[in-house]
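User: As part of a screening pipeline, I want to sanity-check one entry by hand. Below is the sequence and the SMILES for zinc ion. Please return the complex as C-alpha cells so I can compare it with the automated output.
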Amino acid sequence: MRSFRIIPISAGIAALAVLAAGCSMLKFTSAPAEEKPAPVRDGMKEFRGALHVHTFYPADKGSIEKLARTANALGLDFVLVSDHNSLAALQGGKEGMYGKTLVLIGDEVSTDEGHLLVCGISRPIKGTASRYVVEQIRRQEGVVFIAHPFAKDYRWKNWSFGDFDGIEIYNTQANMLDEDFLSLAVKGVALFPDEFYRSIIKISPDALARWDRLLMKRKTVGIGSTDAHESHGLPGMEIDSYQVMLKTINCHVIARELSKAQVVEALRAGRLFFSFDIFADPSGFAFYVKRGERTFHMGDTLKAQPGDTLCVSVNRKTYVKVVHNGRPIHEAETDRIEIPLRGPGFYRVEVYVNRRPWIFSNPIYVELSDETDKAALSR
Ligand SMILES: [Zn+2]
Ligand SMILES: [Zn+2]
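Assistant: Here is the complex for your manual check:
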C-alpha cells in the first residue's frame, strides 16, 4: 500500500495539542502476565517478528539500518522488508543479522488484481498478471500472501485465483486508511501515536469470515502485517514511524532456530500466530493438539485418534474462543483449555483482551484416520 500524508499532520498537531492541554489519554490496562510453565514445543521456539515493512532503500530515510536499530530496540527477532516491486536491498547485500534481529528481504508485487507480499525469492519478478507473477514466485519456491485484501482502495479483486499460501487478515496501514477521516483527525488531535493505534485497531469480521471460507476449501495461512512506511508526519512526529508501527501487530513463528530458511518455512506452513502486541505481551500463548508425548502445532495436519486433546494456553485469564470449521465450539474467560477434538476440519483460536482483539492462531488441520470416525473422537 502506498503512503498517505494528511493524517500524520493531524497527529503532529495532536502531539502539540496534547502537550499544551495536558489532555488525559486513553489507557488500556491489562493484568500483569502470570508465570506459567513453558508450553510444550517439541524443541521448537517462538520467534517474534514484523511482516510487510517498507524502506526507502537505498535512500537514508527509512533505511534498513534504521529499521534494524528500531527492531533491535523493540526486541524483534526478525522483520520482513517488502519494498514495492523491488529486491534492490537484497541485491545490495542488506539481508542478514543486525544485532539480535534477522532482517529478511522480500517484495510487495503489484499485480493487476492487487498486491502480493512475497518472501523467499532471490530474483526480481516481472510483469503484473497475477498468474504470471505467481508462476515466477513458485519457480523460486517463494511464499506468497495476498496483501491487504480487504482494504477499501487496495482490495484483492479476484478470489477465484487460488494460488497463494495465505492472506493478510490484518494490515495496520489499511486499518488506518479505512477509518473515517473526521474520526481519525479527532483522534489524531487527542492521542499520542501508541494510543492513536490502540484506539483504531479492529479486526474485520469479514476478513475472518473470508479466511474461514477459504479454510473450508484448503489450507490458508493467516498473517497480520504492519505495512509501515516510515514516511508520514512532520519531522520528529511520525505517526507511522517504525517505532510505533512495529509494535502494533507481530507474527510469532514456531521454529527450531532463527534463520531465513526456518522463518520462511514457518510462514509457508502457517506455524505461527499473529497478535496485537501493542495491547499486551502474548508470550506463552500456545495452541496445539496433544497425543501422549507428541505435539501437533499450528499449520500441522493430523489424522485424528481417540484421546487427542486440543490445548490452548494463555498467559492470563481472558476471553478465549475456539473455532471449528468456522463456528465457535468453545468460549470461556480462561487461561487454559483442554477439550477433545470434535471431528475433521480446521481448528483455530481467537483471544481478546479488555474486549480488544489480541491473539489469532493459525489453524490445526484434522483428518479422520482409517481407524477412527467422528463418533469415536468424542468417546
Ligand atoms: Zn500494498
Ligand atoms: Zn505495503
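Points to compare against the pipeline: The first strand starts at residue 45 and ends at 53. The domain at 7-278 is CATH 3.20.20.140 (TIM Barrel).
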